[in-house]
Amino acid sequence: MLRGVWGAALHDSDLGAYQAVFSPPDGNSPGYLLRPAPPDPQFAPAVDWILVGAGLTHEPALLRAWIIACRMGLGKQRQPFRIPQARGLRPDGTVAEDAVAWRLGEASWPLAVESPCRLVFPAPLRIMRRDRLIREPTLTDLTVAACRRFRSFLPAETLGEWDRLADDAIAASHEIPQGPWVGDRLDLLRYSARQEREVQINGVSGWLDLPAGPGPLWPLLAAAQWLHLGKSTVIGLGQLQILPVPRDANARRVEPDHWSLSNGQLGGQA
Q: What is the model's pLDDT at position 263?
């Protein structure tokens, strides 16, 4: 609902910004991402609102649209809401009083790079191959998805260099030790105002262990914490969390951080 009312407010208040950020040309990715913020008893409910590329260029218009959206209200009853506070996020995920733009290359790896780590996807991850969902993604699948996603934000003159870097990253992914995928299907049922019906979005949730760490892929995976992987990322799907491998490495239960599944529907804080 937040994404829908904010998008409608932006469409009516600044069509140029809407087209650049929500429906960018040439198949590029939208310049924003909304996801549930980690639980915080002092600052809840909350969302992480992430801008990238065109989103940063049009930030003033996007902020004005939030003010309009508050007055437009949520749901069928158009319940007004307010945003009492906004705080920035640093490259390591900690909170800052001011929102300051930074480069994805500054994204922090939360552990020692050489230590074992677990790549966790608590929200549905949708990586497709030949129009079919990959149910047990490998590190190579994640690397290909990350390279493809980041490529969609880059200017045309840099794509040749990026493709060479992507080839190197994919080759490295074959050499890095990895455990098997552990997880299950997790589908999202959401209402589409444009289609005026509920739409099911298929995905998987689980984890992949890297017993020797991420090797040279750590900057790519660190950036993926912010931009997510796969399809439907703008509504928070495909979020990557990087955690230490627990002592009981054979545990098979996925513990969602701030997503919950109930009656086939996925929900989170807003």
A: 29
